[in-house]
Amino acid sequence: MEKKETIIEITNLHKKFGDNEVLKGITLTVYKGENLVILGRSGSGKSVTIKCLVGLVPADEGEIKVFDTDITKLKKTELNTLRVRIGFMFQNGALYDSMSVRQNLTFTLKHHTKDIEKEAIETQINEALENVGLLEAIDKMPADLSGGMRKRIAMARTVIIKPEIILYDEPTSGLDTITAREISELMVSIQKKYQTTSIIITHDMACAKSTSDRILIVKDGVINAEGTYEELEKSDDEWVKSFFI
User: Fold this and answer.
1) Bridge-partner residues for 169, per DSSP?
2) Is 131 in contact with 156 (CB distance < 8 Å)?
3) pLDDT tens digits, 192-230
4) Beta bridge partners of 217
5) Record keywords: NAD included (predicted)?
6) Higher-confidence residue: 196 or 174?
C-alpha cells in the first residue's frame, strides 16, 4: 500500500482564552490531496484550530507541523513565507467592499507575488473567475453581488495564489440549499484541478458528505470520532449520531 504524504500534523494542541480552555489536546493529521472535514458544536474549537494552524492565534502548547515545519517555532518573517502556500477562506468571505472584484483579486495577487507583470495579473484573474463561473462579475462591486456570488469571489481570491493548502471556515453558511450545494461542488472541483489539501470547518452535513474524504468530530476540545461520512453515519455513539439526524 502506498504511503500517504503528511502535509499537516497537529499534536496535543492546547489553547485557552482567559479561564476558557477551548482546545484540550487536539491531535490530527491531514494527508496530501485530502479534504478533511471537521465537525463540532459551536464553541468546540474548530475555527480556533485552523487559526492556530496559520499562526493567527498562538498555541499555548503542542506542535503544529505544516510541510514538515513546526510553525510554533517560526519567526514572523518565516511564518509569512509559509503562509503564501496556504489559502484561507473566511466565513463571511471578507472581500474589501470599497474595491471591485478585479481590484480585490489584484490586491491579493500583488500581496503574495511581488513584481508580478500586469499581463500575468490579468491572466490569473480571468482564470480564477472562470474557475468559479463568474468572469462576468469582474468589474462589479461586492455590494452588487448575492451571498452566493460573494462566496464564489472569495473562493476565486483564495485559489488565485495557487495555494497547496486551503482552509475553509464555514464555506456554505448563510446560503440557500442550492447555492450551498454549488459551493460544495466547486470545492471538490478545485481540489481535483489543483490537487489541494484542505481542511473544511462546517455545520452543513450536505457539504460534509459531498466534500469530505475523511471527517473528524470535535467534542470538549478533543477529537471525539474519526472516519468517512458513511462510517460515522453508522456509529452507535449517541453524540456522533446526533450530527446525522
Assistant:
1) 201
2) yes
3) 988 999 999 998 999 999 999 999 999 989 999 999 999
4) 39, 225
5) no
6) 196
Which pTM was predicted? 0.91
Closest by CA position to 49, among listed 225, 201, 229, 227: 201
- What span, in angstroms and rounded, lies between the C-alpha atoms of 239 and 160? 39
Q: Closest by alpha carbon to 103, among 145, 140, 128, 136?
A: 140
| Residue 17 Cα distances to 43, 53, 152, 186, 200, angstroms | 12, 17, 33, 35, 23
Under CATH, to which class is 1-85+167-179+197-245 assigned? alpha beta
Domain residue ranges of the chain, discontinuous segments joined by +? 1-85+167-179+197-245, 93-162
The H or E element containing residue 88 is strand 86-89
At residue 44, what is the residue type? Answer: S
Amino acid at the residue 86 = I
Tell me if 24 sits within 8 A of 15, measured CB to CB. no
How far apart are alpha carbons 210 and 157 in whole angstroms?
22
| Residue 186: other Cβ atoms inside 10 A | 20
CA 58 from chain centre, in angstroms, equals: 18
Q: Nine-digit cell at 170?
A: 464555514
Cα separation, 202 vs 205, whole angstroms = 8
List pLDDT tens digits, range 39-60.
998 888 898 999 999 999 999 9
